[in-house]
Design brief:
Helices cover 65% and strands 0% of the residues. It has helices at residues 8-14, 18-24, 28-34, 36-62, 64-72, 88-101.
Length: 110
């Protein structure tokens, strides 16, 4: 059906797309990034988080026992991968759900 009719992509390509209009003028993103105040805001917003992370890194770098204790801790909460990005069964179920919503032929068992 997509091949036999003009797709949305072809319609966008055949006319000046929103993207082309944004590229041909200074985009909002470029205006935001180019201002110093945005960087100052981000720096201030994350200042305390970075300070805390740096303090932990310094402690682990200077205290061998603390470093070894961190290494002994489990990588995952409750020492299980279930529910994490490494849970292949869970990811498979999510993929199956998405494919089911789109009535994908990949789920056909015939």
């Amino acid at each position: 059906a997509v091949v036999s009719t003009q797709s949305t992509w072809e319609a966008v390509v055949s006319t000046q797309s929103t993207w082309e209009a944004v590229v041909s003028t200074q985009s909002t993103w470029e205006a935001v990034v180019s201002t110093q105040s945005t960087w100052e805001y981000a720096r201030e917003l994350f200042r305390e988080d970075f300070r805390q992370a740096i303090d932990v890194i310094r402690e682990l770098d200077t205290n061998d026992e603390a470093f070894l204790n961190v290494l002994r801790e489990p990588v995952f909460y409750d020492n299980t991968m279930k529910g994490t990005s490494f849970d292949l069964a869970g990811l498979g179920e999510k993929l199956k759900t998405v494919l089911g919503h789109y009535k994908s032929y990949l789920l056909d068992t015939e």
